[in-house]
Design brief:
about 290 residues, transmembrane, membrane, transmembrane helix, EmrE-like, EamA_dom
Length: about 290
């Protein structure tokens, strides 16, 4: 349970750093790619095994970090595009509601058992995530651009499900730091290719604020994945319960941090989401 709490706190800290990006006018794309480099470095720093290329190319899980690294960058850009076309709330809801995918996969692929109260808690968690995430009075999805939130939903779910799969099937305790690190390493590599293509039209300018923002983001970002995998390995709860608790607690903590430190105003729907989040956590964790 300690690993789950640390995963929630790390992810909530990511939210705080993103809010500070607005305050300090940091360019998100460049900071995010820097953050992947930092997160990769943190993982290799914590890994106490051999780090030669030949030590990793024979690993059965090598394809995981490669695909996940590419997905990280692709989904990030799709989220940004969704926010531009359909609004921030649509992008946020599509991302967070994707917790349904690893929950279903946990039951279907790994035969996890859920009590009736836990199933009710998971359904309440989905409603809570929706209510706590919407910032506009109502969500309007542009029909022509429906594919964007759908891809964000599926892509985010595939990322969580893939992490769940590699944790369940392939990873040892010792390999968790380097597995997490290599995901971020391949994400950074993909990001550099993306920036390189972009720099052909617009020359790249080094900005120390973007680099500082990336460093501030990279450390909690690494630990959000590291502690999530540790929580999944702890076997205290099913992976379905872990993903539900992790996502809904992140939404709740981020909302409360927004109120306390950034003076954000919540609508009655947002407050309803927070209350349902608390109720769903109780049902999933205790029953």
């Amino acid at each position: 349970m300690v690993y789950l709490i640390l995963s929630v706190l790390s992810s909530t800290l990511i939210f705080v750093v993103f809010k500070l990006f607005d305050v300090f006018k940091i360019q998100t794309l460049y900071a995010i790619i820097t953050n992947y480099v930092v997160a990769c470095a943190v993982g290799f720093f914590l890994y106490d095994g051999p780090v030669g290329v030949s030590d990793f190319t024979s690993k059965p899980w090598l394809i995981g970090p490669i695909l996940l690294g590419v997905l990280f960058i692709v989904i990030f850009n799709l989220m940004a595009r969704t926010a531009q076309v359909s609004g921030v709330s649509v992008a946020s809801v599509a991302t967070k509601m994707s917790l349904a995918i690893p929950v279903v996969m946990g039951v279907v692929l790994y035969g996890e058992q859920l009590s009736a109260l836990q199933i009710i808690g998971i359904v309440l968690a989905l409603v809570a995530v929706y209510l706590a995430s919407i910032k506009e009075k109502s969500i309007k999805i542009v029909r022509k651009a429906l594919i964007l939130p759908l891809l964000v939903f599926l892509g985010s779910g595939v990322i969580d499900t893939s992490i769940q799969y590699f944790e369940e099937i392939h990873l040892t305790d010792q390999e968790i730091p380097v597995f997490s690190s290599m995901i971020f390493g391949f994400a950074a590599f993909t990001g550099f290719i993306f920036i390189g293509i972009k720099a052909i039209k617009t020359p790249l300018k080094i900005n120390l604020k973007n680099i500082a923002g990336g460093i501030a983001l990279g450390v909690p970002n690494y630990f959000s994945i590291y502690f999530l995998i540790r929580a999944l390995r702890a076997d205290i709860l099913s992976s379905a319960a872990i993903f539900t608790l992790n996502n809904v607690a992140i939404v709740m903590c981020s909302t409360l941090f927004g109120i306390l430190f950034f003076k954000e105003k919540l609508s009655p729907k947002n407050w309803g989401g927070v209350v349902l989040a608390v109720l769903s956590i109780i049902l999933v964790a205790l029953f």
